[in-house]
Amino acid sequence: MSLADKLAAAQIKDLIAYQSARRIGGIGNNYLNANESPYPAYEMPEQETWQRYPDFLPNDLATKYGLYAGLQSDYVLTTRGADEGIDLLIRAFCEPKQDSIVICQPTYAMYDFIAEAHQVEIQSAPLAAPEFDLDPKAFNSLAKTPKLVFLCHPNNPTGNLLNKSAVLALAEQYKEEAFVIVDEAYIEFTPGDSFATEIANTPNLVVLRTMSKAFSLAAIRIGFVLANPDVIALLAKLIAPYPIPDPSARIALNALTDMGVSYMDAQRERIFVTKMHVEKKLNELACVKKVYPSATNFLLVHFEDSQHTFDYLAEHGIILRDQNHAPGLENHLRITIGDDADMEQLLDCLALMR
Questions:
Q1: For residue range 71-85, what is the model confidence (pLDDT) as tens digits?
Q2: CATH classification code of 260-352
Q3: How confident is the model at residue 242 (pLDDT cuts 50, 70, 90)?
Q4: Which terminus of the chain faces fewer neighbouring Cβ atoms within 10 Å, N or C?
């Protein structure tokens, strides 16, 4: 029995997936199986087919992204952003009011939000201060064995990478008991540190990806779950009948061409240059206590008075992300690296703040 079968929630194990028309219909030239309108939509551009349902899951996109990530297509599930991947994993492997997940705070808030929504218990193994390292000892204090362990790498909102050997040791520790899920939403900013190539040899390792960050495609809602095929097959039972709109799939495919990836690489380097400048200037400000090292397109900053700073900047039209609610991040704000004009406006306002 595979680990996916062993850990699958009872109500999912024998679930028969809904068979949409595009999922089972076959290939033809006259599709009369999906109750679609034969007529074009209002002001539909030529060459578009908005009145037709999209493919169940676009195989060409899974194949293309697999090539990009170094995996075969049966290791790839396309989702509506990485957040849908989080939801699918919790639904597939956790039974309400019975199972638990582990989060490593401070981290991305959607893990515990989705778990709470599905009445799944949340256990915490906090990252170790002051560098927010993964703390293996924290897992020894858990009250019960989890089904899923969520790790963010690079971590949001702190921006740091997790130690690779510590993550793989954790996967080994839980190899018969839980899936270790590495959220790589920001991995394009440090591509050599991905765990994707470890998946084939680590059956309980799952990687989440998105095209919302470095690929600049937040609006099209394209994400991926990378995992062994038994996990992908189980998650595919739960995914919506037509999850990926055709226009989104085409945009993603275009971004994954050689030219598209080269363009993304160039924009990443521009962001890094701007980030270095901003980090230097922030460190010169009296209102700033610390700027944390970051492998991403954002900076976590410890301010003398983050609430005053947040409110002052908001009055001038600049909105940052308040991290005061996160454990250990009182008086911290997260700053996304925008273009040069965005960042000069920010720095000018901070320099004038009293």
A1: 999 999 999 999 999
A2: 3.90.1150.10
A3: confident
A4: C
What DSSP element (H or E) covers 205?
A: strand 205-210
pLDDT digits (tens, 9 = 90+) for 259-310: 999 999 999 999 999 999 999 999 999 999 999 999 999 999 999 999 999 9
Q: How many beta carbons lie within 10 A of that of residue 262, not counting itself?
A: 10
Q: What are the CA-CA distances from residue 279 to residues 206, 301, 346 (Å)? A: 33, 9, 12
Cα angle 295, 159, 168; round to 5: 85
CA distance 137 to 86: 25
Q: Which residue has the tokens 């697999």?
A: 66
Helix spans in the chain (H)? 3-7, 10-13, 21-24, 59-69, 81-93, 110-117, 136-139, 164-173, 229-238, 246-255, 258-283, 306-315, 340-352
User: Domain 3-256 is in which class?
Assistant: alpha beta
Q: How far apart are CA 206 and CA 218, in angstroms?
A: 22
On the CB side of 176, how many CA atoms lie within 13 Å of its CA? 0
**Nearest 5°: CA angle at 19, between 30 and 4?**
140
Cα Dmax for the chain? 69
Going from N- to C-terminal start, the domains of the chain cover 3-256, 260-352
CA 118 to chain centre: 19
As given in the structure block, the two tokens for residue 100 are 């638990």
User: pLDDT tens for residues 86-141?
Assistant: 999 999 999 999 999 999 999 999 999 999 999 999 999 999 989 999 999 999 99
